[in-house]
Amino acid sequence: MPASSLDKLEVNVPKAWEELNEGQLLYILRLLAAGIDANRVQVYAFLRFAGLGVIRQERGALIVRRGWKLIPLSREEVVLGAMALDFIHEPPPIPQRPERWGGVQAVNAEMHGVPFGQYLQIENYLQQYLQQPDDRLLLPMARLLYPGIPQRKARAKVFRYLIVHWMTGLKMHFSHFFPNLYRPAPTADGLPDLREAMLAQIRALTSGDVTKEERVLNVDTWTALAELDAKAREARELEKLYKK
Length: 244
Fold this sequence. Notes:
two-stranded antiparallel sheet
């Protein structure tokens, strides 16, 4: 089988969310925020990440430039190359975000060092936004994730995609480390009771002692989640015993 032009070019592009650098991640999110179909985003991202500049179309082929060379690529070769970026259709397995946005530093991507109370606020705003998208919810969420961010910077359309992408990856990450905790309990209408869920987590950590509430809200998020995960595991094990 003859080698394709792609084989000769030795094209190497990211094949997973984890392999993207910050610039590549933002490029993909900006395209998605602009309403471009994910399949087309794959093609654009493939050409960009492979360092291939499109010069023109000629007889059903794309004439691309790499360095000083002009190379014809068939539609099939472009589609085949873009398949490496199929991961765009999948949720990210890890939390990803730019280190800085609007000139300010983000909190830790995995929420290490973030007070549990702050994480609960982020989670509450996020769930409200996902249930009923309202850009007014983005500003307080942005200020928690990028403390000190200017209001105009939080209004950028790509910022919505950035936040959802970051939080989706965070939940995937948490589900790996805290599998007993991240099992949603929906209400009768199929949606979680956000206020009750938040209060239940605080009650679990304080054992109902309101004098401990402030201390619990200031503890590191990972410490709180580890404790909640252990309590959820114990509760599930007790439930199994009662059913026997």
